[in-house]
Amino acid sequence: MHRNPSFSGYTNKVIDRHKWWQQHRLKIIIISLVTLIIFVIILSLLLKFVILAPKKSQTIASTTTLTTTQQPQPICQLPFGPVDRILADHRPEYVISRDLNSDNKPDLVVTNPGDNSITVFLGNGNGAFRDQTTYEVGSSPSFIAVGDFDNDNRLDLAVTNYADNSISILFGKRDETFQNKITYTVAGSPQFIIVNDFNNDEKLDLAVISFNNESISILINDGNGTFQSQIITTLNFGSKTFAAGDFNNDKKLDLVVANHDGGEIGILIGNGNGTFQNPIIYLVGIKPIYIVVDHFDHDNILDIVVTNSDGNSISLLIGNGDGTFQNQTVYMTGQYPMFITVGDFNNDKKLDLVVINEN
């Protein structure tokens, strides 16, 4: 039979292509699938972030809806606006917020150790404050407490003066200002002050702690704007802060004091007349510095939390209701915890803690 050379060559090429396809078919299919997948991914990203991206106003509205309807997440956020700076006097150190003039607007009082004064800022209720008013106090004011000490329904101020062993009392006036200071002598280097009724006469008394003198001074209020001479309770250890509460449910205020250098706290049971029994000692962490008292386990019995500055921890002591406490439970914090505050920050009706770590 006669063969057509051109037809035979064509047939051989077809056969060779078929063999090549058979050999590379799997690779071609895989490469095609991968290419298709990559194309789909790119297309979906374009749709999500470019074509279908919500406008800025839509994003804000959506975020607002989530914030108000969903459970808050345990993430610290900053819902604050720009910082507004307010000029005080020389070297402001401590600030307290109260409604000093009974207008339902928070006001501020600031200590100025640099020039031995305090500054009062009356609030306008919109985040702004009136011009400052400065009052002279003692040497190196360190802490402020607020209360109605003369029963005239106006708030007064009590200021500890660290460098001259005194406290300054400034009584509130009808014109939203304060009278000149009245000075009372207390034990050496007062640092922290508490306002409460320590002798059950329904008049606000003062308790002042002295680190250097290792003591607590109680000033009983006569109710007419004067205080009796200090009643001194000796601690035999230095303490920077303390707190008051009825730890044994006898309707008399007791004290809890931090032994800063000893790694302990002392419970001083009150006698109801401004005097206290000797401290009952409990171990906590290294260098306890600040104390809060509250009901942390929902049993209506006061418990204690202490910051341990050099231990990078806090200690929780659960109260038994009879003036005694269980051994500490330790929780680690950041470096050098100083101050602590209490609140229900996630609305679960359980008290939470916020700790300031200085380092």
UniProtKB/TrEMBL annotation:
Domain of life (superkingdom): Eukaryota
Keywords on record: Membrane, Signal, Transmembrane, Transmembrane helix
Keyword Signal among record annotations: yes
Transmembrane segments: 28-51
InterPro entries, sorted: FG-GAP (IPR013517), Integrin_alpha_N (IPR028994)
PANTHER family: PROPROTEIN CONVERTASE P
The protein, known as: VCBS repeat-containing protein
